[in-house]
Amino acid sequence: MPFTDRSDLFGAVHEEGINRVVRHVMRQRPSLFNYATPFFRRRPDLLCTPIQADQRVIDAGNPLFTVQDPLPILGASVKIGLNFCVQLTDFQIDFHPGNTIALPPQLGALPPQRLALRFRACVGIDCPSDDVIAEHIREMELAAVRQGDLFAPAPRPRTRRMAAQSVRPVLANVTRLASPVTLATPIRRRFPLDDIAIDLDDLVLDPGSNEPRTLPTRSLICVCLEVFATAHFEWGTIGNDGKQYLKPRLDGIEIVDLQPTPMEDAIECFIKTTLRLGILPRLVVPMETMILDITSMLSDNNVTIEEKVSLRPAPITPQLPFNPAIEGDQLKAFINLVIEEA
Amino acid sequence: MAHMTVAARETVVQRAMKVLTDNFVFEKSDDQDHGALTTGYTVKCHLEGGTIDFRADNTVEIKELDLKWDTLEVRLGLDIPAVCVGGGCLGPFCLPRTCIFDGDPDVSIAPDFAALVAQEVSIIGRVIPRYFDVDNPPALNALCQLVRNQLVANGTIEPFDRDEWQLFLDPETIDLDLFDFPDIIGDLIEDSLTELVEDLIPGGVVRDLILAIIGGVGDVIRAVLDIGDDFDEWLSDIFNISFGLGDFILTALADFLGHCIPVFRLPDPFEIMPATPQGLIPVAVPIRNVVARVDATELVVQADIGA
Hints:
The structure holds 2 protein chains of 2 kinds. Chain A is 24% helix and 30% strand. Chain A is an alpha+beta fold. Chain A has 2 domains: 13-127 and 220-234 and 249-285, no CATH class; 130-213, no CATH class. A 7-stranded mixed beta sheet of chain A has the order 3-2-6-7-11-12-13. In chain A, strands 1, 14, 15 and 16 form a 4-stranded antiparallel beta sheet that branches. Chain B is an alpha+beta fold. Chain B has helices spanning 10-23, 142-153, 181-200, 205-225, 229-239, 243-260; strands at residues 4-9, 25-33, 37-55, 59-78, 83-86, 89-90, 93-94, 97-100, 107-109, 118-132, 164-177, 264-267, 270-273, 283-285, 287-294, 298-305. In chain B, the strands form 5 sheets. In chain B, strands 2, 3, 4, 9, 10, 11 and 12 form a 7-stranded antiparallel beta sheet that branches. A 3-stranded antiparallel beta sheet of chain B has the order 1-16-15. In chain B, strands 5-8 form a two-stranded antiparallel ribbon. In chain B, 15% of the residues are buried. Classes of the chains: A alpha+beta, B alpha+beta. Chain A binds chain B through residues 2-5, 7-14, 16-17, 20-21, 24-25, 28-29, 31, 56-57, 60-62, 291-292, 294, 298, 301-307, 309, 329-330, 337, 339, and chain B through 1-9, 11-12, 15-16, 19-20, 22-25, 156, 272-273, 279-285, 295, 297-298, 300, 304-307. Strand 1 of chain A pairs antiparallel with strand 1 of chain B.
C-alpha cells in the first residue's frame, strides 16, 4: 500500500529513531535534562548521575546543567540554602503497540494511538553533617540576634553589642572570599564582625555573578525514581500565523513504588505540571520541519511565487481516522499541499 | 524498518512543478571593463510547459520542459585608440583638428538572441542518493566544477563545504532541443511578414484578415519543420551544428544532473535545534543509510539516525 494513499505527503519516524534523537539531544544539550545549583560547576562529581556530554559541548564551554537557586533553609535569618540537583536520564519512547516499555499497572496497557514514555528522575539534596550544622548554629544565632529576628522580644541595643563582642574571639580567624574570584587566585580578607562566617566551600565561584550562599556540601543524598507516562500527539496552531505544529500532549504519569500515596501523588503532580508547562511546550515541531518547507525552498532559490502554498494536516476521514497517528511503532503524519490564489 | 520515511505523491510533485514553472524567473545582468574591450550581458528567462511522471521502473520522467529566454543580450564594446589629424598653427594660420575613434567605446553591439534561442528538454532519470564527504570529495570534470563555482559564487546554491547527503536525478536518457529552430523560424517569418503587411496595409478589416492568415501560415511552417529525426538532420545541414557538439552538450547535461548539481541536499549531521544567542551549540544528528525509490504513485526517501 502506498504511503501517500490518504494524503499528498507522508512523514513517519520510528520509535528507535526518536530514541536515538533523544540520546543525541541529551549529550549535546545536557542543560535541558540536568538542573543544579552553581556549586556543581566545580564539583560535578557529586551529582547523582555523571553527565555524559558531547566533546563539542565541553569545548564550547556550554553548561552541563541549568543553574537553579539553592533550596532555601526555611526560617533562617540569612538567605542561605542547600545544594541540590535534579537529573533526568534514560529517556525511552515506545509507540503503540507497546513492546519495549512495560507500563506499571496504574497506567494499564498502552491504548491505541498512544505512546509510552519512561525516564529516570534523580533528585539529590545536600544533607549537612552534624558538625557542619554545629559550626553554623552560632552564626545563625548571631544573625538572628543581630537582626532582632527572634521569636522572643528583641534585646536592647547594649545587649546586642555585648553579644557581638562575645563572639569576636570565635570569628577572629574566619575569612571569606571576596567576590568575584577564581579558585586559582583566592583573595581573602578579614571577616567583619557584623557579618556571618561561611566556609570556603560555601562559596560557589562564578565570577561576575551574585551567587546565593549555601552550606558546605560533601555529598548528596540521591533518590532516583522510575517515571512512566503516556502521551499522544495532535496538530494545532500557535499564535496567529496559521502554521501547523505537531504538539505532544501528556495523558498520564506514574511513579513506581513510592510511598506514602499522598507524597507520590504530590510528586507526580509536580512532574506532570513540569512536563506540561515546562518541557512539552518546547517540543512542538513545525509541520514544515517534518516534511519540507516548499515556500522556503523556493525563496532560497530566489523564486517568488504568486500563489499561496501551504501545508495542512490531511482531514480526518473514515479512511484516515487518526492524524497524526501512532501505530506500528511509528509516529505518522499525513499532510496535504494546498495551493491557493494569493 | 527505517527510522525516518518521507513520501510524496506523484500528483503533488506535479502540482509543485507547475507552481515552479509558473513562477520561476531567472534574471541577471553584469558588465565588465577589460580596458580596450568591454563586455556585458543581460539575461532573463522563464520556464514553460513540462510534465513530470513517476514510472513503475523506479525512474522519473520530465517531458518537454521549455526554457524560454525573455532577454539574452550580449554586449561587446571596442575602444579603439583615437587617431587625430590636423591641428597646430603656422604663424597666424591654424589647421583644423579632426579625430576619429575618440569615443569610449567606439564600436559597440548588443544583439539580443532571445528570439533565436529556446531550449526544450525531456529527461528520464533515477533518483539516486550519494554521500558527499567534504574531506574526500568525488572527482568532478572541469565543466562541472566551473558551473558549481559560478552557481555558488552568485548565491544560487549553497557552497559544498560540509558533509551531506545529495539526491541526484541521474539521467538515463536525455532529449534536448538545443535550439528550437522550428519555432524560431516560424516566429521570424511571422514577424517579418507581419511587418511587411503592416507597412503595405495601413489598417482595416482586410489587414486583420491577412494577419490572421499569416499567423496560420506560421503554424504550418512550424508543423512542417518539427519532424523528429529528419529535423535533426536538417538542423545539422542547414545550421552547420554537428552531432558531435550535440553529444557533448548532452553528456555535459547528463553529468550536470547526475553528478554535479543535486536536486536535494541534506546536511550530515542534520541540525534539529539551532545554536542559541547564549552560545549553546546547535544540536545535530547524524543521518545514515539514505535510500530513495520511485514507483508509479510516489517518491519515497528513507533514512536512519546514526548512533
